[in-house]
Amino acid sequence: MSALYSVAEIRQVESTALAALPPYTLMQRAGAACAEQALQLIQSCEQTRQRLPVLILAGPGNNGGDALEAAQLLAQASVPTWVMLHADRNKQPEDARTALQRAESSGVTFIAGDSLAHLPEQRWGLVMDGLFGIGLTRPPSAKVRALIEHINGLRCPILAIDVPSGLNADSGSIVGGADGVAVRATHTLTFIGDKTGLHTCDGKDHSGTVLLRTLDTDAAGIKPAQAFLNGTAQFASALRPRASNSHKGSYGDVIVVGGARGMAGAPVLAARTAAYGGAGRVYVAFVDDGPAYDSAHPELMFRVADRVEFASSAALVVGPGMGTSRHAHDILARALESESNLVLDADALNLIAAEPALQHKLHHRSPPHGSGAPQSAIISIITPHPLEAARLLDLTTQQIQADRPHAARLLARHFNTIAVLKGAGTVIAFPDGEIVINPNGNPGLSTAGTGDILSGLCGALLAQGWSTRHAALAAPWLHGAAADQLVEQGLGPVGLTASEFIPAIRAVFNKIIRDHVQRPAASPQQH
Ligand SMILES: NC(=O)C1=CN([C@@H]2O[C@H](COP(=O)(O)OP(=O)(O)OC[C@H]3O[C@@H](n4cnc5c(N)ncnc54)[C@H](O)[C@@H]3O)[C@@H](O)[C@H]2O)[C@@H](O)CC1
Ligand SMILES: [K+]
What we know:
Number of strands: 19
CATH architecture of the largest domain: 3-Layer(aba) Sandwich
Number of domains: 2
Number of helices: 17
Strand order of the largest sheet: 8-1-10-19-18-17-16-15-14-11-12-13
Radius of gyration: 26 Å
Bound molecules: ligand NAX, potassium ion
């Protein structure tokens, strides 16, 4: 599993390693790793271009120290290396001061001055960002901002050391919000352990390809991770080939509950996805009179919600287009009282946000956290987007987005459920504090109806007997992989429509089942 660490955890690992090693060892390892990575990047570009100098921006702390150590190693390797220093020599930490002395006695060219006006007007083969790492505490100054904005406009590779400068390594938000700025790296070489903020919120747009160097530290041995990166390995144990001797009853029932008058499209999208996601039978239970059937998919069965029994064996997806009427409220209350695995989205979440009695029902569906019950006893998944999350937690959307991992943990703990906080780097949180960040997907998903599709897919997996954990991990991953595949085919991200994701999800799902399921080699056929 790919572990992710918080800054506090990294600091703990770092101080244990620093205490056990001779001075300057970690910085030497970090600088060497940066130089090696920079060489790899410039060599791959040099096949098409002549050797261009490397520009290194070195800040006031140890992030700058890593950059300066890398600078002297690149100079030693005969790479023309220019450094712009943003540090008061009298205030540098000891290791960074050592690194500066080493760089000064090597063949590095130091730029006189530290503002954009001092930067030589020339092309660079690579820019290394060693301005700030995990020690950033406030938005960069106006002078540094201008520099960051300038390098963000360059077309060469940008290698961020540890964290793109300006980004909060825990939350993935830009420090200072609209007043802040962050380096948009093509690559981020991160140290000791991978960090949550590189994979969610603004982290996705600013980190580029994330590469990890542990610097021979053992983070997992010192601090068991509480956060992970999603991938097929996280739910591979749920992937099974279908038995030939099976029937529709083998793959379960999904009941999508929603579709108030004038909003029939949302539950139909969820239901179509549930069918394409492999559920044996799919029903739509309309809050009000819905259409008679889906002419594009007549296999879907349409009912009136009041007349549908929520059997415990069915997976319920409640909320798409449901509205917030009293009638919708009562149907939701009945669903919350059922023993079915339940996915709650959209208006179901808005209704819950508005009423403590519904919140109480949701909380008590699963055994309380700390009761010793296994994670598999959790029978609810909520799939809010940031605005729905804000309503549920009585916060603003900005507050949710300022720290998505924290917000997802709050949701899971507060409602005693698995919480899937949608957005760039969807965060899946469990009541015990564990989070998993989903790295795939793209802005093609930023269109109406994709949330309905995610909830329908969750329902399909639950109907097929998947645990809530596996369904909550697999659904965002398949959703994101489908979006990536559509973009690769040239169909997005601009203008993708929710319906197009449905067959793409089916294709991706079948492919990963094929790829992951080990089948015994067939015996040669006898003729
Ligand atoms: N100590 C070591 O030997 C190691 C340090 N490492 C590197 O060190 C980094 C952490 O070093 P630091 O704790 O020194 O932190 P940083 O290098 O991230 O920066 C901290 C310094 O920047 C200042 N600062 C913060 N925000 C500022 C702003 N907006 N404008 C101007 N100054 C600002 C702080 O006052 C402090 O002086 C890691 O990200 C990593 O790159 C790693 O190489 C591992 C080894
Ligand atoms: K940096």
